[in-house]
Amino acid sequence: MTTKYIIATLTLFTSIAQAQTSSSTPSPAPSATTFESSGRVETKMFVPEDLMKGSLHRVGDQAENDGLLNTYFLYSGDDAFEVTTGIALRTRIRELYAIDKLRAMSQSDEFAKAMANAGRQKVQSVVGLVEDPFGTIKRVPLGASRFFGRVGEGLKGGRSQGEGNVVQSITGISKAKTTLAVKLGVSPYSYNQELQHQLTINARAIAGGGLVVSAATAAVGGAAGDVISVLNVNQTLQQTLVNSTPDDLRILDRKKLFALGVRREDADALLMHPWYSPWTETILVDALSNIGVDPTAFLAQACQALTEQDAIYFERLAQILARYHATKAKLRAIHVESRAVCARDTNGTVVFPLSCDYAIWSEHAAGRVAELRALTQGQDDTTGLALWVDGKVSPRVEQELKNLKIDLATGVLDQR
Questions:
Q1: Residue 133: pLDDT band with limits 50, 70, 90
Q2: 63, 137, 162, 181: which could form a disulfide with 70 (CB 3.0–4.6 Å)?
Q3: pLDDT, tens digit, for every residue of 152-169?
Q4: HSE (CB half, 13 Å, CA atoms) of 372?
Q5: Using CA of residue 228, residue 230, residue 236, residue 241, what is the dihedral sign?
Q6: What's the 3-state SS for the chain?
Q7: Each residue of 24-39: b (16+ CB within 10 Å) or e?
Q8: Separation between Cα atoms, residue 6 and residue 191, nearest integer Å
Q9: Residue range 406-410: average pLDDT?
Q10: Cβ-Cβ contacts under 8 Å for 358 (sequence gap 6 or more)
């Protein structure tokens, strides 16, 4: 069997947990001397049954948990893939089916006629153009040294990989591409190169040649959802994402950031960042705007992202804080404690957002909690600590946090 790998890892919390060894602040000892260990977990604990298999894929019965994130084993035909986080798993499955439908569209007689109408030669299928159906994802070193290293100017640019170019925008291809992608349940700004290729050639046929997309061309749906429904955004923002160009979205985002007191250079650092797609940065900025406090410290941390998954991690953190603000207590400040994003509410509670699949009570987790408790102790305006998580935690974590009088909420973005 040919084995290819895609590793989509959100490493922030794990990385900062390891930073405790270099902290000058003494940490209280954990409440127990034994810890939970990383290892295999049952996939069915995290993945709905109807997402486990389909006509083009199968998900392995067990996943590998590293203490926070799950790595799932995804099989399609003769290929096997490792996909880290449940969010990435759903994305890869949707993209797999979208690519299959797009390939079928580009091989149809209707496509050939549309390309002829557009004054273009027939696009021939190139076998092996991109062998990996999930596309080529750039690999970068992982860990604290990577994540907290300096982001060189060479990594920064005005557009993310999936945005297309000026010619596409002028000819209407960009709009057709967005409409087609949403219909297929995927993001038009995906970093999946094969998906981008297939979206672009079909969008050309639609925009320039009048290719009609049939009703059969629809998202995989089911437990995987579609790209819009899984974004945790309201109807108004959904319409903005679908109907706006990347430039329109950046103008909107910049105005929102300015209204929050963010300086132009700090706003541009996010909006021109290569790993934040127009949708990701718009969702993140909208969440911060809904909170309504200066997010400069948050943005400084978010701009250290060096992968697409890092960007999604910070998008989720912003959404978690916005959910807390809307449903629990109003937030009055967002800041960073020992490289961890946190916020203080009007009651004096310091809340730490965490995006993960399944957190266990590992030695790193215990030490990290102890460190964060020590940082907030002795502060007169601190009345308590809270941890808000978008995934799940082990029963041991629940008990340890209860013993420490830390308020815990899980699955917070599932509550609509």
A1: very low
A2: 63
A3: 323 334 555 556 554 454
A4: 28
A5: negative
A6: CCECCCCCCCCHHHHHHHHHHHCCCCCCCCCCCCCCCCEEEEHHHCCCHHHCECCCCEECCEEEECCCCEEEEEEECCEEEEEECHHHHHHHHHHHHHHHHHHHHHCCHHHHHHHHHCCCCCCCCCCCCCCCCCCCCCCCCCCHHHHCCCCCHHHCCCCCHHHCCHHHHHHCHHHHHHHHHHHHCCCCCCCCHHHHHHHHHHHHHHHHHCCCCCCCCCCCCHHHCCCCHHHCCCHHHHHHHHHCCHHHHHHHHHHHHHHCCCCHHHHHHHHCCCCCCHHHHHHHHHHHHHHCCCCHHHHHHHCCCCCHHHHHHHHHHHHHHHHHHHHCCCEEEEEEECCEEEEEECCCEEEEEECCCEECCCHHHHHHHHHHHHHHCCCCCCCEEEEEECCEECHHHHHHHHHCCEEEECCCCCCC
A7: eeebeebeeeebbeee
A8: 12
A9: 97
A10: 41, 45, 46, 65, 68, 69, 70, 391, 392, 393, 394
Which of 164-173, 209-218, 219-228 has the highest mean predicted lDDT (pLDDT)?
Answer: 209-218
The percent of residues above 70 in pLDDT, for the chain, comes to 74
Residues 6+ apart with CB under 8 A from 171: 204, 207, 208
Distance in angstroms (rounded) separating the CA atoms of residues 292 and 332: 8
pLDDT, position 30? 46
Tokens in use for 244? Answer: 């706006």
Average confidence (pLDDT) over 212-238: 67
pLDDT at 347 over 70: yes
pLDDT > 50? residue 255: yes
What's the angle, vertex CA 121, arms to CA 117 and CA 122, rounded to 5?
90
